[in-house]
Amino acid sequence: MFEALKPQPADKILALMQAYREDPRDTKVDLGVGVYKDASGHTPIMRAVKAAEKQLWEVETTKSYTGLAGDPGYADVMIDLILGDAVPRSTVAAAATPGGTGACRQGFDLIKMANPKARVFVSNPTWPNHLSILKHMNMEMVPYRYFDDETRGVDCDGMMADLANVQAGDVVLLHGCCHNPTGANLNLSEWKLVVEHLNKTGAVPMIDIAYQGFGDGLEEDAQGVRLVAGNCPEVLIAASCSKNFGIYRERAGLLMAVCSDPDRGALNQQTLNFLNRQNYSFPPDHGARLVTMVLNDPALRADWATELEEVRLSMLGLREQLASELQRLSGSDRFGFIAQHRGMFSRLGASPDQVEAMRRDSAIYMVGDSRLNIAGLNASTVPILAEAIIKAGV
Ligand code: PLP
Ligand code: TYF
Questions:
Q1: Residue nearest to atom 6 of ligand 1 (CA)
Q2: Cβ atoms within 10 A of the Cβ of 139, count?
Q3: Are 95 and 69 in contact (CB under 8 A)?
Q4: Is residue 125 lining ligand 1, measured as CB closer than 6 Å?
Q5: How many CA atoms lie within 13 A of 115 on its CB side?
Q6: SS3 string of 96-145?
Q7: SS3 346
Q8: CATH homologous superfamily for 10-45+300-391?
Q9: In the predicted model, what is the mean pLDDT of the chain?
């Protein structure tokens, strides 16, 4: 049987992590995988998460199974964090998943169950895992224009023109905030256009939100998803706690199905439970429990929000430093978009050869599509990157 297996393409981002580790140069700069790093290059455990973990060790009395959808208290705090009061709690079915990736996978599975013919419209570009999971599941994907290579902002006209092709029963996959890999995001009026169009056509939005709090703030980053949830009859939301709680390896995510028809809610919940059972029975609990404890304890929550804000502001500071260094070196404003982008990533717009030259000549590791992780920089590596960008002729 095993002889039938074929080599699968490697994940380019994870392969880059490996190449970086193997590079002996001590001046090397890792701008690859989307993991937050502080100025010393360390990915810290957030203070509130560590405190919750200590408490949990004291108070946890059992490791018996949770429910199929995970702990309902986790769903409650996450729904509140993401959706605020955009919709009544009773309209949201939710299940804990292993990370945001698990939430995406379960969401796609639900779409396939509900409409095997659904086409999933994906931004061009999008997170490569969206594409590989959809491909693996034999689901049809249709790219829509998203990034304007000239302005390095959102190509809203192109996006709306491509979304004119959606039909009822299709799904439009959107990034809630901090678009990966470009860093270019919809503003609220653009979100409104999308909502109007979805409601006109009967296509269903699925929102992947993996960076709430990394862009403009916890509330600001949820505006798009709240607008969609409050105004579309059916919405899927795949959320991740990996980044904003810094609990990557704990695998905490949540899939939500929001439905304005109150009669559908119970069946949606049952379907989410069923899908968890088919794929792994019970979702991981440890990370989800830490998130629940942090969000339910006012002091821990306040400390978490403060630390998250420090993280967000440090990335914004690096963006501004890089944009102004590039302005100085190039004598032009053409890199101003770096300060406009939000989240961990910016797509620089460099060619694969230029990306390769920066790696070869300056030991700078960014993804081949010229996505760079802003958090991989610090005040002293920004000028090194800026020089390398100019030297490569970007
Ligand atoms: N969706 C997007 C757009 C991402 O960038 C990520 C990566 O972190 C995820 C989902 C899911 O991450 P995880 O499975 O680690 O929670
Ligand atoms: O895009 C990133 O870098 C993050 C982390 O298979 C990641 O989302 C990268 C690759 C992958 C899973 C997560």
A1: 210
A2: 18
A3: yes
A4: no
A5: 14
A6: EECHHHHHHHHHHHHHHHHCCCCEEEEEECCCHHHHHHHHHCCCEEEEEE
A7: strand
A8: Aspartate Aminotransferase, domain 1 (3.90.1150.10)
A9: 97
CB 52 within 8 A of CB 300: yes
Is the Cβ–Cβ distance between 140 and 119 less than 8 Å? yes
Class of domain 65-296: alpha beta
* DSSP category for residue 150: T
Q: Which token pair is 20? A: 């970086």
Pinpoint the alpha helices (H) of the chain. Answer: 12-22, 47-59, 72-83, 99-114, 128-136, 156-163, 188-201, 223-231, 265-279, 286-296, 298-330, 337-340, 352-362, 382-391
379: DSSP letter: T
- Provide mean pLDDT across the span 363-380: 96
Domain ranges of the chain: 10-45+300-391, 65-296
Q: What is the DSSP string of 244-296?
A: TTT-GGG--EEEEEEES-TTTHHHHHHHHHHHHHHHTSSPP-HHHHHHHHHHH
> What is residue 384's predicted lDDT score, i.e. its pLDDT?
96
The residue among 17, 33, 23, 15 whose CA lies nearest residue 363 is 23
Give yes or no for a contact between 312 and 38, defined as CB atoms under 8 angstroms apart: no
What does the pLDDT look like over 226-268, one tens digit per residue?
A: 999 999 999 999 999 999 999 999 999 999 999 988 889 999 9
34 lines ligand 1 (CB under 6 A): yes
Contacts of 263 (CB under 8 A, 6+ apart): none
* Residue among 129, 178, 206, 371 whose CB has most ligand 1 atoms within 8 A, to mutate: 129
The mean per-residue pLDDT over the stretch 86-98 comes to 97
- Token pair, residue 27, equals 């001046």
280 — phi, psi (to 5°)? -155, 15
Nearest to 13 by CA among 388, 365, 376: 365
Q: Token digits for 326?
A: 């590039």
Residue closest via CA to ligand 1's atom 7 equals 210
